[in-house]
Amino acid sequence: MSVGTMGSESLRDAMVDQIAADHAGKGLVLRPEVEAALRKVPREVFTPGLPLQKAYDANAAVLKKMRGAEAISSVSAPYLIAEMLGQAANALGGLEGRHALEIGSGGYNASLLRELVGPTGSVTTVDIDPEVTGRAAACLAAAGYHDVTVVCADAEHPIAPGRRHDLIIVTVGAWDVPPAWRDQLTDGGVLVVPLRTFGMTRSWALRRYGDRLVSQSHRLCGFVSMQGDGAHEMRYLDIADGVHLRLDEDQRIDHDPAAVGALLTQPREEAWAGVSLPPVTVLADLDLWLATRLTHFVVLSAQETAVRSGVVAPGWRFGTPATLDEGTFAYRSALRWTGRLFDLGAYAHGPAAAAAAERMVEHMRAWVDAGNPTPRLHVLPAHTPHGDLPAGAVLDKRHNRLVLAFTPDEKGID
Ligand SMILES: C[S@@+](CC[C@H](N)C(=O)[O-])C[C@H]1O[C@@H](n2cnc3c(N)ncnc32)[C@H](O)[C@@H]1O
């Protein structure tokens, strides 16, 4: 049967088969109950007007609302929803009977959660946009999910003061963890949140221990940004046609963007780590390692056209570690493959290009020599004295002090 003639159920099964295969390719396991929920909920009900095949594209988010060129609301990509539900279920040892709060509504994820928590659990979903909550409530009813509580509010603040949830799953990109999220969790409860650190977003599953949160797992992801009182804009510097630098937290650049762009026209130096890594290697971990070690760190992003024309050749065009140090620009390069294994490299332009590229690959080699460690994120209240912080790279946000720790005993634990 061709995709064009497949019905809803067959397309849904094909989508789930693909998600399961993608999970396996990343070394992840699609939990049976998450798989069962994905095979049950009719996604097309939450994407009205969209051709059926598109509703069942495992890798595509469906954009729902734009402000200028920026998406502010979407139905998230199924593979990512599956990964985040998996993070939640792994961290809590299953979701049956759990009380879940979803931040960022749409209806699809809330229906999956409704399936996962079962009759003894509960699901509340909150969105800042009344148009979204109106649509989510209507779609949930159309799909037969009448017992999801839909709330319109800015989730930066407590939703139902005093109420605690076992799980808070955030489906919008956050820059910090507002105290309300921690306070609405049971002790031992889990917050799954796409959180930006050093200009790079990961979906972190964080378990609450009193006033602190500690990560259990993380996944690479991208999300529309949070609006309302918790909004925190990323700054972009356009350095050449289709080439941008992202600046987050207190990162500063004292150079004129055109001068940085002009560096790209200077000869390119390269250095290679001389390693042979398999495709399952989690480069998202390497990128956080580099962010916590490189001085004058920035994130390079590029449009496809800029990559195709060879202006830049980054490791990942949606966000690659880079440095801008004393008039020299260096970044993690595209991978160099030999058969089924790859090497890590750096490209650099500017007066000290060869040294800058070599410095970057030394950090890459150190990560490989340390056994490709994965970071653990600790989130502590902003007033925590320095002496009480765990060892690691400290990032001060509005409400919290974040610590990213890479130690050999801190391999992913889910
Ligand atoms: C990616 S969409 C959510 C997708 C949804 N979970 C689904 O099942 O398809 C992100 C949503 O977050 C909402 N949002 C943004 N800032 C918010 C805030 N401060 N409080 C609550 N919702 C917010 C947006 O209005 C948007 O609808």
Automatic annotation (TrEMBL):
InterPro entries in the cross-refs = Methyltran_FxLD, PCMT, SAM-dependent_MTases_sf
What SUPFAM superfamilies does the annotation carry?
S-adenosyl-L-methionine-dependent methyltransferases
| Database matches in Pfam families | PCMT
| UniProt EC number | 2.1.1.77
Q: Where in the cell is it found?
A: Cytoplasm
Does the entry feature the keyword Cytoplasm, yes or no?
yes
State the GO CC annotations: cytoplasm
**Keyword DNA-binding appears in the UniProt entry:** no
Question: Where this protein primarily resides, as one coarse class?
Answer: cytoplasm
- Any one GO MF annotation of this record: protein-L-isoaspartate (D-aspartate) O-methyltransferase activity
Q: What biological process terms from GO does the record include?
A: methylation
Keyword annotations: Cytoplasm, Methyltransferase, S-adenosyl-L-methionine, Transferase
Entry's family note: Belongs to the methyltransferase superfamily. L-isoaspartyl/D-aspartyl protein methyltransferase family.
What protein name applies here? Protein-L-isoaspartate O-methyltransferase
Q: What is the species listed in this Swiss-Prot or TrEMBL entry?
A: Candidatus Protofrankia californiensis
